[in-house]
Amino acid sequence: MKTKNWSENLQGHVIATVRGRLVEPFINRCIREQIRIWDIKRIEEDRIQCSILLSDIKRIKPILKQTDCRIHFDERVGLPFWTRRLLGRFGMIGGFILFFFIIFFMSNMVWQIDIHGADPVLEDEIRTILAKQDIHVGAIEFLLPSLGEIEDQLNSQLKETTWVGVSRDGTTYRVDVVQKELPKKEKEIGPRDLIASKTATIKKVYAEQGQAVVQQNDVVKKGQLLISGMMGDEAHHKFVPAKGTVLGETWYTSNTEVPLNTSYHTYTGRTYTKRQIKVWSLTIPIWGFNAKPFQKQVTETVTHPFHFLLWDIPIKFQTVTIREASQLKNRLTKDQAKKMGEELARQQLTRELSSDAKILSAKIQKDKVEKGVMHLQVFFTVEENIAKPRPFSPKDRQKDLKEKMDKQEQGN
To answer: How far is residue 215's CA from residue 229's CA, in Å, rounded to a whole number?
Structure first.
């Protein structure tokens, strides 16, 4: 005899009553034939109750005949019987599966799109852009672009915003917008001069308000007065906030390096797409089974987690895009390196200058090659507005003028 354990429940067994005049020989014969029988209980002189494995039922039929016994199945226990009973209730199973599928499907849909920080016109424009990317109420979340891609599309197409952020909370997509503000009305400013922000040769002077004290071709130093905030002479004058533009020719030196031997990757345009389900660390391919479609490739993976109601479940949908790449090697001549270095230096200087500045000329002052790298020093001539404001106190300026006039009178 053996005691019952989980394997008997998994394989299925029956609790049966065996009757006959040769009950003991029946038990002995079963043990001899290695038929699994356990939990044997004597109920009467010619009747016992026992448990028999489902797979051994057919094997006991000859033994029953040989021992003149009959069997009655009292109870059926285990997974096979439970499955059979469950399959008999197909409507209930189908309803449960359908209910689970509907909840799962609805948990991975977009139910709401909230837009914050946008006026009605801009909000309508944002919804139009989202709709072109199939982002709308009722869309399947794991088939949509990633949040980063959505942000890039909105930022590139919206001209009236300074920043757009996209986030997801459950079945709701949230778009936060910072709109560009109209320029504020300038505050009233007190008297001021315009002075040189750097050493330069004056090219043009535009004095909107105030009195210019320099002219074309003058060489000025940093901090030198360009447009005075005093209009008139020492005797008859008034103080104003100087306004204007003073274009000066300035000079910059930039150092840059250019490697003569370079290698870089480029895409051929061919792509291969895989779609797969990831359950914990197990990846199940759905579409695209080629592990390495290209000899040289770059892989991009976009992952969308599945949701059930408010919870993220450990199942994810992945789209893997494989792009064919090729590696190119390039060797520059010294002239090519100089030209490239000059352009790199020009771009770097342009980023540092104001938007209204203009590079007039560029000249390579020094160049040398060390360990396969061209080192360049480039001299630039730039035309830019060199005027910057310097406020002053009318009382102090009046005092200075008085002292100046007193000195002149004493001199006379």
So the answer is: 16
Cβ contact 249:200 at 8 Å? yes
CB-count exposure of residue 99 (10 Å: 0-12, 13-18, 19+)? exposed
Place of tokens 């006991």: 60
Distance between CA atoms of residues 412 and 407, nearest Å: 9
Q: From CA 238, how far away is CA 402, in angstroms rounded?
A: 14
- List strand residue ranges (DSSP E) for 229-309, in order: 230-232, 237-239, 243-259, 261-279, 282-287, 297-308
CA separation (Å) from 177 to 110, 115, 131, 149, 228? 20, 7, 17, 16, 44
Q: Is the pLDDT of residue 1 over 50?
A: no
| Residues 283-310: tens digit of each pLDDT | 899 988 888 899 889 898 988 888 777 7
Q: Dihedral angle at the C-alpha atoms of 42, 46, 51, 57, nearest 10 degrees? A: 170
Alpha-carbon distance of 19 to 16, in angstroms, equals 10
CB atoms within 10 A of CB 375: 15
**pLDDT band at 3, cuts 50/70/90?**
very low
pLDDT (tens digit, 9 = 90+) per residue, 243-290? 999 999 999 999 999 999 988 778 888 999 999 998 888 989 998 888
Give the residue carrying structure tokens 């479609």. Answer: 293
For residue range 322-366, what is the model confidence (pLDDT) as tens digits?
Answer: 999 988 888 999 999 999 999 999 999 999 999 889 999 999 999
Q: At what angle do helices 90-107 and 79-87 cross, to 10 degrees?
A: 80
182 DSSP assignment = P
Q: What is the DSSP letter of 147?
A: H
CA–CA gap between residue 354 and residue 214 (Å, rounded): 23
**Radius of gyration of the chain measured on its C-alpha atoms:** 44
d(CA 150, CA 396): 58
Quick one: tokens of 25?
Answer: 């020989």
- Higher-pLDDT residue of 57, 402: 57
> pTM above the 0.85 mark?
no
